[in-house]
Every structure is written in structure tokens, then in C-alpha cells.
Write a structure and sequence with these properties.
The complex is a heterodimer of chains A (about 200) and B (about 280). By secondary structure, chain A is an alpha/beta fold. Chain A has a single domain, classed as P-loop containing nucleotide triphosphate hydrolases (Rossmann fold). Chain A is built from six helices and nine strands. In chain A, the strands form two sheets. A five-stranded parallel sheet of chain A has the order 6-7-8-3-9, sandwiched between helices. A four-stranded antiparallel sheet of chain A has the order 2-1-4-5, with helices on one face. In chain A, strand 1 (about 1-10) and strand 2 (about 15-25) form a beta hairpin. Chain B is of the alpha/beta class and about 280 residues long. In chain B, the strands form three sheets. A six-stranded mixed sheet of chain B has the order 6-7-8-3-9-10, with helices on both faces. The termini of chain B are far apart. The chains are: A alpha/beta (about 200), B alpha/beta (about 280).
Chain lengths: ~200, ~280
């Protein structure tokens, strides 16, 4: 399966173009790193690829077709700030189970303490809430994961554990992964291919 | 004599369990830390290990349901609520973790100028902005008009223009470009060289090691060990605590290793799957 950005351009209102004619293709089974200075539009690009935002020009194709607008989204975005990616009036358990029900072994491998599921998002640390968001996105129908600074707020051990789980799952299910990060060491360690965002347009 | 001394600090939160039944949750136990003038002590550890609470305890800004025991002293003077109120913002400066700490209704330039105690406030603010790569016109913006990394740099400017003797920085770098991170760390180092004591709280061990003299490793509300920054090298043979060694070996450039709890040792494994 292929996720493809065809000549995507984006501008907010009448401001300057954030980026123009960005082309990229991601295959299932690939782990691709996306590098670029902050403020260059990497997060917006991911939002468009996942269908959270629309592009001003160009289109996103999944195996030659438009992204589905109903039902479970096969392209899942994991956000940099988990506290802004959840409903503050839902408990963590409801948030995690919105699209599917992760089983015990999934919780264990992401080191999610079942006690957290009964708490409100404000009662969890950023790292704890991020793990809930990762579990939420890893349903069996997910074909592509876009990880936007997914582990930036985590300590090194937790970061290594979470990537191990996500990469093993991605390999066994043949999912495609896009890793957005400022950490060159992390990208070099886990990615099979690296894209410089500024070279896309 | 250390400028800041924390001895056997314990913090307990009182929470309502069900109805009016209360329970006590210990969050920090018997934590000790000393920082000399001109020294940078990095405090590293997992999220939820109590790093921020230590900063809040020193500054006297813990929530009301927190009970604190132990001794804290600044320049030989016990840190009582009255004393800390006089010191903070003057001899002790703070870079808070949340970018929401900025005043949403005040231009950020004015927020920086307010913190200046000696010299011309406008000139000091402009110098700080130039140093951290903020354009002069950013001074006229309000916090909601800044990106996360820019807001973080404003917070660092506020803390550093005050000329405080002790700087406590709680996660000052996330969201910044690698180049700006380096510039911020260089600035911290320059302050320390002029005699400022710095407590640098971070989960980013790599950033901590570029400037710190000592590293205090926190885990579950206690200090596991305080080690020389130079001990983090090679396979971590000179680090005494297994957790510290695991933290070091888990960095992507050091093996990305995951500690094997049952065997009690750290396993190095390759995660890159073959394309």
C-alpha cells in the first residue's frame, strides 16, 4: 500500500505559503524519517497526510484513492502534545478505547498502568497520556502511523521501550511509519530512509 | 558551603479518595541535593519521578494539599515561606516547564523588562532576545502569537536577565531547534562561569551532559545517585546505579537498549528492521 502526497501546498489565510508542491510517497513496511527546522511546516504536512487538515492545493492519495472520510482512518497521526489531542472531559480509558480495544499485552508493552484508565487526562503526566494516545492509534486497521515528535517528552528508557513496541508491531503488520523528529540520533537508529522536508517542494 | 542545600526532603499529597475519605500519596522521599556557586547540577529522570516537584518545593509554589518535611537552605539561610517569597525573582530565578506560565495579556518584551533588576530594562531585554535568536519585533507580540519554541526562549530570557545567583530551569529546551538548544545551553554555561549556580531539570540526558558538572538521577521520588557528568562515557562502567546505566545505554546513539528487568541487566538490541 502507498500513501502519497501529490503536489501539496499550504498557506494559512492570505499569509505566505508555508510550503509549495510537496511530493512524497510512503510505502507500507517502510520507516521514514522527516527532518527540518522548526516552523517549516512538518506538523502541518503530517496533519494533511492524516486528513486532519486540508491542503490549499494538491491531494493525498492512499493507493490511488482519496482518504476515506468516514469510519476508522487507516492513516493515524500521533501528536507532539498529547494533552491537546484528547477530550479533557473523557477519562483515559474512554479515550484509548474510542476506536478499538487494545488488549492486556498491548498495554503491557506500552507500559500503561491499567489504573491510569480511570483517571482524567489532567491527572496523567505528558508521557503517560502519550502512551494512551499511541495505544489508541495502533488498531489492526491502521496502515500508516505518522509520529510527530512522538517521544520528545519521554526519558531515554521509556523512549527506547515505546519505539521497540511500535517498530515490532509495524514490522509484523507491515505498517508504514513516518518519524518526525529533531533527534538525528533517533532517526539514524530507527529509519530505513530519511527525507529532508525542505527538499520536498 | 553550597549555595543551595536540600536535605532529606519529603513531599506528600493529600487527596480525596471517595467522598470525604482522604488518602496520603508520598511523591518525594528523603531527597538530598547540594549546588555550589558556579556549578551546574542536572536533575534527570523519567516523567513522574518528582523532578518538577523539587523545583516547586524550593520555590515554595507547591499546591496547598502538599505537606513538606526536611530541610532546605539558601546561602546558609533556611528556606521558610517568608524567606523564599523575598528571594524568588531576585536572588533565585525560575524557568517554568509550562509555556502557559507567561502572562497572556502582556507583551512578551514587557514581561522580560519587568524582570530586569540592574541596568537598562529595554537594553537588557534586547540583548537577551538577540542572544536567543528572537527577532526584535517579537517583543511586541503577546504569548498566543508565539510558537512553542519561541515562548520557551522568552521564559529563558526572563529568568536570565534577572541576574539571579541561583537559576532553576525546569525542562527549558523541548520544542526548540537543535541550534537554539545549543545556544541556550551555552548561555547557561556562561552564567555558571560567572558564578551562578544552576539546577537544570531535564529528561534529555544528552543535553544535560553537554553542560553539567554533576548529574543527579531521580527515580520514583528519590535520588538514586549523584554522579560526575564525566562518568557518562563508554558502556557506563563508572556509573554505580543500574538505572543510571540503563538510562545512558537507552540513548539512540548508545545502543537504544532496553533494560531487562528479570535478568537485572541491560540488553542491547538492534531495532532497525531490514528493508
Amino acid at each position: 500500500m502507498q500513501l502519497e502526497a501529490r503536489s501539496i501546498s499550504k498557506r494559512y489565510g492570505e499569509e505566505q505559503w508555508l510550503f509549495r508542491n510537496a511530493n512524497a510517497a510512503l510505502q507500507t513496511g517502510e520507516v521514514v524519517g522527516l527532518l527540518g527546522p522548526s516552523g517549516c511546516g512538518k506538523s502541518t504536512f503530517c496533519r494533511i497526510l492524516a486528513g486532519y487538515d486540508s491542503s490549499t492545493e494538491g491531494e493525498v492519495m492512499l493507493d490511488g484513492e482519496r482518504l476515506p472520510s468516514k469510519g476508522y482512518r487507516p492513516v493515524q497521526l500521533i501528536f507532539q502534545h498529547p494533552e491537546r489531542a484528547v477530550n479533557p472531559r473523557w477519562k483515559a480509558g474512554a479515550i484509548m478505547n474510542e476506536g478499538w480495544q487494545p488488549d492486556g499485552s498491548m498495554l503491557e508493552s506500552l507500559e500503561i498502568n491499567p489504573e491510569w484508565l480511570n483517571r482524567w487526562p489532567s491527572e496523567l503526566s505528558g508521557g503517560e497520556l502519550q502512551r494512551i494516545c499511541i495505544a489508541r492509534a495502533l488498531a489492526p486497521h491502521t496502515r500508516f502511523i505518522l509520529a510527530d515528535e512522538m517521544t520528545t517528552m519521554l526519558d531515554a528508557i521509556t523512549q527506547a521501550r515505546i519505539w521497540k513496541t511500535v517498530l515490532e508491531l509495524a514490522a509484523s503488520r507491515q505498517m508504514g511509519l513516518m518519524v518526525v523528529s529533531h533527534d538525528r540520533h533517533l532517526i539514524d537508529r530507527i529509519c530505513t530512509r530519511v527525507i529532508d522536508f525542505r527538499s520536498l517542494g | 558551603m553550597p549555595l543551595l542545600e536540600v536535605n532529606q526532603l519529603s513531599i506528600t499529597f493529600t487527596q480525596y479518595d471517595r467522598g470525604l475519605r482522604q488518602k496520603k500519596v508520598p511523591v518525594i522521599q528523603n531527597l538530598s541535593l547540594a549546588v555550589e556557586r558556579g556549578e551546574i547540577v542536572a536533575v534527570v529522570g523519567a516523567s513522574g519521578s518528582g523532578k518538577s516537584l523539587l523545583a516547586h518545593a524550593i520555590l515554595g509554589i507547591l499546591p496547598h494539599n502538599a505537606a513538606v518535611s526536611g530541610r532546605m537552605a539558601f546561602d546558609g539561610q533556611p528556606l521558610t515561606p517568608t524567606v523564599i517569597r523575598k528571594l524568588r525573582g531576585k536572588r533565585i530565578a525560575f524557568v517554568p516547564q509550562s509555556v502557559q506560565s507567561l502572562d497572556p495579556l502582556m507583551r512578551v518584551g514587557d514581561q522580560v523588562r519587568q524582570a530586569v533588576r540592574t541596568g537598562d530594562p529595554a537594553a537588557e531585554q534586547q540583548r537577551a532576545f538577540a542572544q536567543y535568536g528572537l527577532a526584535p519585533q517579537v517583543a511586541r507580540r503577546y504569548p498566543f502569537q508565539l510558537s512553542g519554541g519561541m515562548a520557551r526562549r522568552v521564559l529563558v530570557s526572563i529568568a536570565t536577565v534577572s541576574g539571579a545567583e541561583l537559576l532553576i530551569a525546569d525542562e527549558p529546551t523541548p520544542g526548540m531547534d537543535p541550534a537554539v538548544v545549543q545556544e541556550t545551553l551555552r548561555a547557561f554555561k556562561a552564567f555558571a562561569d560567572k558564578g551562578t549556580a544552576i539546577v537544570f531539570i531535564t529528561h534529555d540526558l544528552e543535553a544535560a551532559l553537554t553542560i553539567a558538572d554533576k548529574v543527579a538521577v531521580f527515580h520514583a521520588g528519590a535520588t538514586l545517585e549523584v554522579t560526575q557528568a564525566a562518568d557518562f562515557e563508554g558502556k557506563g562502567e563508572r556509573l554505580r546505579h543500574p538505572y543510571t546505566r540503563a538510562l545512558w545505554l537507552a540513548l539512540p546513539q548508545n545502543g537504544f537498549a532496553i533494560p531487562d528487568e528479570e535478568a537485572g541487566e541491560t540488553q542491547i538490541c538492534s531495532l532497525k528492521h531490514e528493508a
